[in-house]
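OP here, attaching both records as promised.
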Amino acid sequence: MVLNKLLSNLAVKVQPFALCEVNDGWRLRLPGPSETMLHFVLQGEGFMRGPNGETHTLKPFNLLVVPKGVMHSLEPYGKIEEELRIDSPPTGEGVFHITAGPDESELVLACGLINVNFGESLGLFDHLRDILLVDFSETPQVKDVFSNIIAEQTQSLSGSDTMTAALMMSCLVQLLRHLTESADGPLPWLIALEDNRLGRAIDKVLEDPTAMHSVESLATAASMSRSAFAEKFTAAFGHTPMQFVHQLRMIRAAKLLLENRYSIDEIAHKVSYSSRSHFSEAFKKQFGKSPTDYR
């Protein structure tokens, strides 16, 4: 299944989470996040207000995915009299506590930034433009995921980053299952995967990104014309077919470098580069450091 292969190529980074508590009569206003932001409702009810005044329900087991740069606020029901404005996210280690108002909390959410890529630039949520709400009331184990992330980051145990990424991956699997079952999913590439023709081409690349792929060969695999395939692929992923191939080759190269079994010349050849210099230049452009430094 193409979705399984896409998931196996995901790189997940989870920044320190915050417990956000919003009390009766208060609003917590948040800046547009630098990365995709998740809000999972642990307790209470209310709504999230988007940048244009649109509202989204906040109930226990609701997950809200906020795209990069989208300002928003968290509010309990009732009249709002005070506001706590956060102009920039807190920095440092461990779980942060953000409390709007002095009284008993009406709303409690687990909030955090995540970065989910197929490579260094193929982001899972790159095409998400509006706030996404998913109701996980029928999947209660998702609440355990966020509770465990908070516990891991609070304790800062050895291997906590790896454990947190694994926990977040399980949440992403549940999210993608939900979105693939939705008739009007907000992620264009998920909709594109429902097209068996495009799926065949993606599957071919994922099976062996180092093969001699071209737009023509992938269009043939998809049983589409070159122009129609290129247009549909780029619309879905925000990158051309060959940019997608390049990203997966660099992922393969990075893994081979860390395995330390092959020379850099051998790795360059394995990922379809004819010379070490061209490979090193492409790798540094992708990862910001040379293959030697990366290793």
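Record two, same layout:
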Amino acid sequence: MRLLSTLGVFGVLDVVMPEWEAANGAKVAASFDPTALMLERIGRGERADAAFLTTAGIDALIVDGVMVPGSRVDLARSLVGIAVRSGAPRPDLSTLESTRSALLAARCVAYSRKGRSGIFFSGVIERLGIAREVNARALVLENGVTAEALLDARADLAVQQVSELMLVAGVEVAGALPAGIQDDLLFAGGVFTDAAEPDLARSLIAAMADPRRAGLYEAKGLEPVNRG
């Protein structure tokens, strides 16, 4: 079966998918991108059996007739955070003012142009009144995991979903953005209307939504919706 997925749940899928494949005698051909880029690909006609995207993305595809009504299954809530290279001083993210100061003090902040976290962060620095200063020395990536820019010192702070920052060895998550400038992002699964393997698609989504996976989601930096 074919799967299109946001990078936000990659860490969980990396564990669940091999176990599901072994239990079902099936193979998953998975492709990963930020939700915004994935929606562009789908808009150009790309299809699969299942997708893991933001709830807003799944809902939009249902409205457009691309995904099956009622097939949306909510999985986990994600927070936007900031990471540093392992061993580097961690910025104070406890308040709006301390976070604002940390962003202004940074030599370079890496964030994504088209990922949900990057689009959100762009709005955050506008609201904080520091967009011009931060963007003057920011590293804005088209796609991928922003924390990789910490490893070669292209940036000293990386902004992205906490679950995505945790994918990179050699970095540490300093924390999530404080309340007031935090995103409320929920990831979900859905089934394509023209899926070649709709039963397998629903089975994989059910495996990802299993309440027994709550600890795994938490370990990967996500807040599970389905708790045992």
